[in-house]
Amino acid sequence: MKKAIPTRSVSFILALIFAAQMVPISAHSNDREIPLREMSQASPSSLENGQSRPTLSKKWKYCIVGTAAAVLIASVSTGVYYVVQEQQQAEQQPSLPVFTEPDSVQNNAFLTFYGYDDNDNGKGSYGTSVISDPTIHQVATEDLGTYDHPSTFAADYRAFRAGERIYIPRLQKYYIMEDTCRACTDDADQGKSRADLYIGSNDQIQGQTLTACQISFTHDGYNDVIIRNPTDGHPVDTHPLYTKGICYQQNSN
């Protein structure tokens, strides 16, 4: 969002300039210029008795106008600086590919896996099935992996759309984005795409066997293939990747 000069600041500055212009400078011999402190102490009765009308000295008037102008210039300069900075940052931000066609192939993704044990509720509490963007499921779920019953995956909003379906050929499963992950955001900052796929139960801690299973499915590097905007009809293996302490490796290579 571009930063602009606050409306209150502009109004205050303009009010100062206007006030300074409205204060009369001595133009007649019966008017006398006095310091600002003395002017503030002048009483209405003294003016009614014929005493000279106090006016703001040129020095003070120029001081007010000059100060207001300096503040206005500084404010404008600061606003321009922030706009330029944000534009430069936007230009330096890596761009992520956009997939709009059905069955588009992305071959530079990184697939990782998470489960109940290492999922957090967004407040630093782990051991939960809470998800940030419930769509088909209200909690993280390793579903059948079909088009109509996809499993949950987490990602960054810049890489995938909330509610977006994907298909993973090496797992022969469909997934739907219903959650986010910190590592996915870190990757998106660098122009990389990561999808964190949910496996296992969504109601209990499963321990080291779940962690080992997650690691076994994870390949090194950003070379996983994802089908974006997949159509229905791709081959599907409905067997869960992890259930009851058993890690299922068929069709995962």
Descriptive labels:
253 residues, alpha/beta, 6-stranded mixed barrel, two-stranded parallel sheet, 10 strands, 31% helix
Element order, helices and strands?
A: HEHHEHEEEEHEHEEE
**How many distinct beta strands?**
10
Through-space gap between termini: 44 Å
Overall pLDDT level: 80
Helices and strands: which structural class?
alpha/beta
Give the uncertain stretches in residue-range form.
Answer: 1-5, 25-31, 88-92
Oligomer category? single chain
- How large a portion of the residues is in β-strands, by DSSP E? 15-25%
User: How large is the count of helical segments?
Assistant: 6
Radius of gyration: 34 Å
Shape: elongated
- Provide the helix percentage: 25-40%
List the strand order in the largest sheet.
Answer: 3-7-4-6-5-8
What composes the largest sheet?
6 strands, mixed, barrel
